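Today's session is about reading a structure prediction critically. Students often jump straight to the picture, but the first step is always the sequence itself: look for stretches that repeat, for charged clusters, for runs of hydrophobic residues. Only then move on to the predicted structure, which in these notes is written as discrete structure tokens rather than atom positions. Here is the chain we will use throughout the hour.
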Amino acid sequence: MMISAREHFPQFTPAEYLEWEAQQDLRYEYIEGRVRPIADETLARAIDTTTNLSNLLQEHLHGTVCRVFGDRVKVQTLESNSFCYPDLSVSGDVQDRSANNFISHPSLVVEVLSPSTEAYDRGEKFALYRPSLFLQEYVLVSTDLMHLDVHRQPSPGLWEFSSYTSGESMELTSVDFSLEVDRVYEQVRFDVGF
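Below is the predicted structure for this chain, in token form.
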């Protein structure tokens, strides 16, 4: 998802933001009272990797209490008073099971990187998620090469970093799932431009 140049919007409360955004044609993230537009950036590699990972997670989690949410479902970060749109998220929390518009207790958040979002996803967006006591893993999926970065929170406030490339197996401890990195990139063509 691309964050476009900041436009000037009025300051909202969370309730005002949710009501206002429901009436908009575009999606907007809500960061500490301010809204930020999200431009739809169509990128074949991003779509393919997101679809692959979503399918793998759904197959693995079938029959469990966990649910995989796509890029149209917001994540409310209670600690930073924000709403963000990740590319994928997973929650098994009872409060999130019937969610349609936003969830608040994801254990896993996935962002698929693009040139226009990479700095934001690695920096400011991760900083919004970091204080969460519920989030166990934050995964960044490269679209330039077969490469995934995983930030894990094994205990509150302690984050660890792991990096995975082609030919390696990646463990997502938040959902007890081990998968080959290459499976995330099946059918992905890296010669296709943005």
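Discussion point for the tutorial: The chain has one domain: 42-184.
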